[in-house]
Specification:
The chain is α/β, with parallel strands linked by helices. It contains nine helices and six strands.
């Protein structure tokens, strides 16, 4: 197999090479010391996997990862870094990494992770933080309430809303009251602020 190793410390690259060749003497390792060199080498040759550090000079390893996955989406990438925080593992996962290990990983774990991602699997020694989708409060509104909310957020008056939607001002006022209640707001001015923050006043 042919593996590209991108790390700005030559001693780290040499250590990884020794680990991989001890496991499989036929492994062909190519070295890159920064992100630009890594992308250049990827463009010039075909690799079975990329081992990539996060803390690189110039563009970060995460930026390199994003570019590499955009240009070579099928390339398995193992992030090998000193960062043990889950947030980095999450960002690496979102950017397309197949594996994430810290540099205190054992040689055996590095080899196992590399073989796993080359088979199409994943290996995250540092658990990614859960990605919890946030539901905006206005998404709980009825379609008519959402329509009134957007018009209020755009600065439309109650009378203009009534005329536009062919409703009475009293009905529009009722919708406004429901919107305030559901969004936990007190007055129309707060609706406008909320609308701007959520991008509802656009278009």
């Amino acid at each position: 197999m042919k593996v590209l190793i991108c790390d700005d410390h030559s001693i780290v690259r040499r250590g990884i090479i020794e680990v991989l060749r001890e496991d499989d003497p036929t492994t062909n390792c190519v070295e890159a010391s920064d992100g630009d060199e890594c992308i250049l080498l990827l463009a010039r040759g075909t690799f079975d996997a990329l081992i990539l550090d996060i803390g690189l000079p110039g563009k970060s390893g995460l930026d390199v990862l994003k570019e590499a996955k955009q240009r070579w989406p099928s390339l398995p990438v193992l992030m090998l870094t000193v960062y043990a925080e889950g947030q980095y593992a999450t960002r690496a996962l979102q950017a397309g990494a197949s594996a994430y290990l810290t540099k205190d990983a054992t040689p055996e774990e590095v080899c196992v992770a590399l073989k796993t991602i080359m088979r199409g699997g994943t290996h995250f020694a540092c658990a990614p933080e859960p990605i919890v989708p946030k539901t905006a409060l206005h998404e709980k509104l009825s379609s008519r309430e959402a329509q009134v909310l957007k018009m209020l957020a755009q600065g439309t008056t109650m009378g203009e809303i009534a005329a536009s939607l062919n409703l009475s001002i009293k009905t529009v006022s009722t919708y406004r009251t429901r919107i305030l209640h559901k969004l936990g707001l007190q007055r129309t001015g707060e609706i406008i602020v909320y609308g701007v923050r959520e991008g509802l006043g656009e278009g």
